Amino acid sequence: MIDPAKVCLFIPEGLKRFKLDLFNRIGGYIEKQGGQVVRHDASRLAVLPDDVIPIVGCQPESTDLIIEWRRRKRQWIYWDRGYFRRWFAVDPANKARSLEDSYYRWHLDGFQLRSVQKGSDERWKSLGIVAQPWRRQGGHIVIAAPSKTYAKFHRCETWLEETLDAVARITDRQLVIRHKEQVLTRPLSKDLEGAHCLVAHASIAAVESVMFGCPVFVHPDSAAALVGKTNLKEIEKPVYPEREAWFHSLAASQWNERELVDGTLWRSIT
What predicted TM-score, i.e. pTM, was given to this entire model? Predict the structure, then answer.
C-alpha cells in the first residue's frame, strides 16, 4: 500500500486531451491527500526528498532520472497504458468497453510486471477475456517495432535493425515487421495468424501475443519475459508455459479510470 500523501505525480506537456483530463483528476486526488504534482518540468523531480515517491510515464525527459533512481535504489512509480482493455486497442478481444473502463498499469520500481504473485483471479475474470490455447506450429516471425518515443525513452533506437540482423542470422523464416502506426488500423491477431512467434522489446504486443496463444521473445524488462524467452539464439525453440497465474498478476497490476481516482490504486499498488 502506498500513501498518496508521499508521492509526486509528473504531468508532462503534450498529453492528448483525454489523458490530460485523466491525469488532472489523478493529480487533484493526490493533492487532496497531501501529495504533490509537478507539471512540465521533470528536473524538479530530481530534488524531491527521498521519502517522496516520483511518478513518471514514458517521457524521454524522465530517462536519466530513472537511471539515477535505479542506481540509488530510490523508489519510483511508472505508469502507462494497461495490459488489457486499452481504449485504443484494435482487436475486440482486448478493447476497452468505454473510455472510463480503459486500464492503465502502475508499477513500483519497474516498467512492467516483474514477478508472478499468488492472488485472486477476480480481476482477471472481470475483464471477460478468453485466452487462446498455445499454437505450437507456425511459419513466419512477427517483429513488433517500437515507436520513436518508446525507443528514445528506453534508448533502444537501433533495436529494430539489430534484431532483424540477429534473427536473420539464425533462421530463414519470413520476418513480418509490425510498425507502431499499424496498431490503430490492423489487429495484431491478423499478423499472428500462422506465426511461429512474436519478437518485441517490451511492447504490450508481446502480452497480447501470449493472450492469443503465440509464443514470444522479448527484452527482460517485458512482463512477457515471465512466460517467454529473452535469447534470440533460441528463436527456433519457443516455450509454452502455464499462463493463468501470470494473467491474474497482470490484471492485478492495472486499474481503470475510476479506480485511479477513488483510492483503489493506492490500496493495492505494490
Answer: 0.94
